[in-house]
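In this section we walk through a basic example: taking a raw amino acid sequence and producing a predicted 3D structure, encoded as discrete structure tokens. The instruction is simple. Fold the sequence below.
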Amino acid sequence: MLAWEKCLDIADNDDMKVATLNWLNIVLRKMGRPKDADHHLLDVTKDMEIIENHDYYDILLMYQSGDDSKLVEKLKTSKQISNATLGFGLGTYYQLQRR
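The resulting token sequence is shown next.
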């Protein structure tokens, strides 16, 4: 079991869950385990109560749908510190698509 999977076991709200799932998703994909990553993406749903980790949530929805347009637009129009999270998420997504 990966450390991020252990973190997921103790995530007690949707914000903690999406933050953990984001990093677990990246790790699994970089390890060459996309099916495991896709399985964990099933835990991301439209009815999650996200209070502060909207960027992680949007990144995970991008992986689910394969559509980066919402994230690209958000990155272009945002002037917030979250651009670092969005930029890293989008860059990692593009990097992983080349495999």
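Looking at the output, two observations stand out. The chain has six helices and no strands. The chain has a mean pLDDT of 91. In the next section we compare this with other chains.
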